[in-house]
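Anyone? Bumping this.
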Amino acid sequence: MRRQSKSFSLFVTISLLVISLVFILPIVFCIFTSFKESTEIIRDITFFPRKWSSVNYGYIFARGAKYLQYYLNTIIITVCSVAITLVLSALAGYSFARLPFRGNRLILSLILFLLAFPLCAILIPIYMMEFEIGLLNTYLGIILPNLLCILPFSIFIMRGTFIDMSSELEDSAEIDGCNAPQAFLHIMLPLAQNALIIVLVSGFYNVWGEYTIAKTLASKDSIMPISVALTLLKSEDWNYGVLAAAITMSIIPPITIFAIFQDKLVEGMTAGSIKG
Amino acid sequence: MKKAFVFLLVLAIAISTVFAAGANESADGGKKKITIGAESWEINKLFLEHAAEEFEAAHPDVEVEIVTIADQTKLANYILDWGRGTTDVDLVFLDGGIFSVEYASKGLIYDFEKDLDFFADFPKSKFTPGSLETGFIKGGQYGLPVIYEVYGISINKAMFEEAGLLDENGDPLPIKTWDDFYNAAEKLTKKDSSGTVTQVGGTIQFGNNLHIILGSAIYAQFGDAYAEDGITYNVDNDYVRNMIGAWQKGIQNGYLSQATFVDNAGGRNGFKAGQIAMCFEAAGRWMEAVDTIGVDNLALIPIPGDFGGTVCFGCQMVIPKASKNADLVCQFIKEALYGEYVQVNTFGQYGKMSVIQEYFDKALDETPIWNGIADSMSKAQPLKEYEESQKFLNGLNQIFQGGLVSTTTTPADMVNQILDLSASIRK
Amino acid sequence: MLPTCIVLFVFVVYPVCYTFILAFSKYNFAFDRNMTFIGVQNFIDMFKDNQFLAALKNTMEFTLYMFVILVVLSLAIALLLFNKKEHSWFFRISIFMPIVVPASLICILFSFMLADNFGIINKFLMDIGLSRFTHNWLTDGETAKWCVIIVEIWGKVGFCTILFLSGLQNISVDLFEAAELDGAIGWKKLVYIIIPNIRETFVVVGIWAILQCLKLFVTPNVLTNGGPANSTLVMYQNIYNTAFNYFEMGYAAAQAFVLTALVMIFSILNMKIGKKEA
């Protein structure tokens, strides 16, 4: 491995510390704000709460304990969308990169087109279509448009990854008697795990906080994800304390997941590097 | 990684079986059910859940369900649903009348008077003056107000006292013209040694209700907001030019806040925070500041102008023609929403004024601050709702946000821009 | 895979075709019963419309600044993280944290922090005696632009960093060792070893960044609502307003196609440049 000089290492640490602070301070401020009363938030303008208060959380939970349902909805929508994206983007990316077929370029440019198209312009047609075929207020009705948003980019990532890989590996696998699907599953996919992680993170990122699609297509409590449900707490204006509590609530689950799996994520990334 | 992959796949398949389950809503046989759609603040501040319980208790065979409307785009979807004769709501609350114009012009909602005969057993004389008119759209009573609001200026009396703007009784000195308003704002503004403004004289809603601000000021002067054609705002006169000039000077000297340029709540939050002395918006804003400023430090003054009236606007209820329960909904309105609990409490706690005269008087006795604008409330009238009022509002935002900070644009220029804008939109 | 693709395809093709027809029609969703075909009139109107032109100009400006800052900053952070071996989990988590924060909500909080009179940033400046640096951050058109850019970068840089980091980790260790033996250190290492070897990552980050920049919406919408006086109005928001506030579906669709064309041009440009360097 490389050796690093002490001063360089110090420089790295200090700059990272500063950058981390910039990123983390607004969130810390948000969490602190969620424990303040409105007089303190708006009149005294403090950073640390002087008096810890749970009034904002009380307000949220007083409005029905439906939050478990909302979380569950978000989890179902996110997990399904991300899982389907992983499968489809791996397969599609592989086909684009490795299995030349007719119309390859045409479909690829269509996907690029989708990637570029602003969602809000097709929201009303989508609503009308779902209205006709009865998909409104179903999980599927929200997952499909979400896929529309995250799949094109994921396919691009996977395609790029498979193109980069040397074809020798695959060829040698075929000599060993593997057919194309087997080679894909046993050789290529494990090598592409780095990219799969990126697809996973980006998919998660896009779907978890997704608001525009969900608020249009889901109006019932049984389907509504937490991102929409929390905005319902807005009165005529946001009470900043309640807002901060809502944000805190919506970031706790993903941060917990990230904290638990961050070792795995990092491991996955480094494992990729050794083979690269 | 591969394991995780397979795991996700299995999970996806397992969950996809949930789709069907999630889609089925259990129907409650036998009971009649009405569904009410409202934004969350309306559910909260109009005590809709209480009203529903009250009605269910009185009519055990009826179930009242309340669904929350996430935001205004949902209201656009109703155009589609109702146009096809289906609806998942029987009664919808609309904040402001913009959508009711669209629904009414497409013939999607009932006229309460002609179609439903609402006033047969609930005479119009029960309503406060001006309130029913807020729901009168396109020549019919398509909307019914549940509450209404008027415009006025909330003030921080402690700051007025410090600036010497209170008389010997502790009442604010009258502000009769926009020049008075400007002078008061100047006295109320504080700067520190480096010239940084630490207390601002006033704020005006230059954001989401600017058309009402403009209309109410014209109305307060002339007793009619419109020019001879009866629909264009009467802006082509010295009163309006003088007013815009006062606002412009105020903004440029830092006596008036620019916060509402980008954040609709910016002005009133500054008022709440005790940093701004006067707040020209919906008059109920003072109530939000009770926690931080204290009720003794708050007062209401009317909009400056010779006539002294104000403009009111209501939160409308509409019933789609696609609904099968219109009569039951009317009963719900009469018994629960126009009942004492909702009407008195929304006024007393949130400053949303009761549309029923009896409860209006009752609530007024309990909150004397309203007496500051009692005279102007008695002369309240609604503004006309344009078909393209969003475009009008957006155009006004551009004109004011650009013009008020510009040193080269004169008030006369801005008036001309408003006239051009007004000519270009559908009314 | 095939059936799923077909379902998705239908799901996409119908709305897009519908929108395509809309783009050549005049259709006010709220008032017109049917759409009227008006040819390319929408596209002609667009270039006489000050709102649209302002949005176009702002979008280009935002894209230029944001793209450069986003790419440079995330590469820098990725390099720092790459060189930090111990305790890197803390930095990773804090830099990736904004990814999981719902953007629409956090922007409201930012607007509160940046507010003129009661924002914590102005308060902090006053408290440390720098009151002459206090500023009406969001109501001054120029600073409002930068506020939007900074908040946007804050939320987006984490993801680009992940992309770069994984690209860096794909460079083989042998390559580094060989380079070090040849005496390549510091900047030389960056220019001759690292950058040529993460070209593919550049392309991916580039596409992502272009998308984020051109389709910028949530931050200006919530933070400044396009104001003051259109100084932060972007194309996406203009499309949204046209469709959902003015209900001019046809005009909105036409603008959507212009935006799509822009994104595609930039993405293809980005890929071409990426290839050329190969």
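Late reply, but here is one note on the structure posted above: Chain A touches chain C through 90 residues (CB under 8 Å).
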